[in-house]
Amino acid sequence: MADTTVIHLPPDLLEGPAGKPMSYWQLVWWRLRRDKVTLGAASIIVLIVLAAVFAPYLTAYEPFQGSIRKRLLAIGSPGHVLGTDEQGRDMLTRLLYGGRMSLTVGVTPVCVALLVGSTLGILAGFTGKRVNMVIMRTMDIFYAFPSVLLAIAISGALGAGIGNTIVALSIVFTPPITRIAESVTTQVRAWEFMEAARVSGAGSLAIIRHHMIANVLAPIFVYASTLVSVSVILASGLSFLGLGASPPAPEWGLMLNTLRQSIYVNAWVPALPGVMIFITSMSFNLLSDGLRDAMDVRL
Amino acid sequence: MEAHGAILQVQSLRKYFPVRAGLFQTVQAQVKAVDGVSLHVQRGEILGLVGESGCGKSTLARLIQRLIEPDAGEVYFNAENILHLPQRALKPFYRQVQMVFQDPYSSLNPRLNIEDAVAFNARVHGDSRSVARTKAWEVLHKVGLHAEQFGRRYPHELSGGQRQRVNIARALVLQPKLVILDEPVSSLDKSVQAQILNLLQQLKDDLGLTYLFISHDLHVIEYLSDRVLVMYLGQIVEVGRAEDVSSQPLHPYTQALFASAPTMNPDDRLDHPPLTGDPPNPINPPSGCRFRTRCPHAMAVCETATPPLLPMGENSRQVACYLYTPQTEAGSVRSSVP
User: Do B308 and B320 meet the contact criterion of CB atoms below 8 Å apart?
Assistant: First the structure.
């Protein structure tokens, strides 16, 4: 069970709390609470999510309603805090509504890949050589393509649209999760308590449910959380290329595309969707780092 | 040797592990982990199995428990051949035969508290949550861990000795008849070892258990066992009562083992170790008697064929050595040894 990664944590994070016994998840939560950076990233994400959900209450404007007279107003113009885009639509409104789409397309594929990938990976790790070989070599075929290329290819084949983007990204993310799941399952299976569980007379399904899932889920979950930040960027990239959302949908990647020409007129407004993508992706990244540190508890 | 009243009988058990190498992962060699082992365990006794690391003791334990499928041989529990049972029919067998593992840490699920870990075994066999928990508390109490204090603790909050007690509790919650203990005290400090061994003895008396106790530590085996089996490189070389084997070891390997055991007496220091070198590779064991390459009494006959395990005197003593067979010259002298 030796883990060769060295994680430099401040000393007080290395020990747990004294006092009442804590389960693994309670311990993770206790450690997360004390990590300032992770808490900050989590709050930002919560803010973005809330802003996206309550967008209609936060602005007076409509995301599709624009006035040509008011195109490309600068940031800080009266009535438009973040300016307007090339069709005169309020940027703040577009960004808030865009959060809905970008978050959805960012998180959903990872959730789908988590479900499908974990199932396949645990199945591959738990059953015999032949099933393992079939599943893992199939995943290797997908793994051979660079993820961006694979996403573009699948998206292009399926056609434009948010739904197809979600499908494409789910396909892209399933093989890495399967690989992690299979690896962790194989490791956990070698631990003696798995033999002890077999000696109890339990069937394979009961053993997986009671003993394996809890131990295997944590590393898979940590890995999947790192994929969310990648997913947000990939989704925006696909929309930028025209393979995802189509105009006039307020999606951040698409907004980057349509605002491209306007850099010469107003340099800062076109950068705003990019800033939002950056903030969202970075926050998910930091959150997943913090999650990994909290979950890699040396028990 | 037919044994009546034996709770467990093993006949000519064999397990070879294939070594695969090369481009197409072809089988290049076989690791002869267990090669023709026969033994029986009498009801109510403690049978000690002693041998060096790598001699196949743990593999033998797992073969008996059917965690690994044997290549050949028979295993009878209560006169029923358990090797012929399909996997799903093994549940009642597991109720009767349980195992305590060596590593007290990795043999406990780090995500379960100990009362859940112990109760799991009971729930597998149909008990409801509350009944299983009650049973878990009772058996934890028997091993010296009070449920109010320890029940909700997690393995990482217990010491090695406490974890091993949990392992024992988990094995006993189903009230098995036979418990196979695979080096249960090898990872513990000496003082804790003594506590656990005494606990095991007490539990055996209270609950009427039978033990197959595996260890590489002679003192531990001597302390606890009624009868002793000595294993070398996948085969049994000597059998006998614990006091007989320790006072008068017959097989040269057993003699060397007992001579090598360190004592607390500084005057008893050895000039040179009785046994040198490492055991041969089980992939390619020596022909004939496997011990002949390290044996001080090796003869020409030892190369020819593996010496059979033959009875030697009374008290169910058995030795597999040409020194004691009547055919050889040396044997005809020594075969009169009781």
Answer: yes
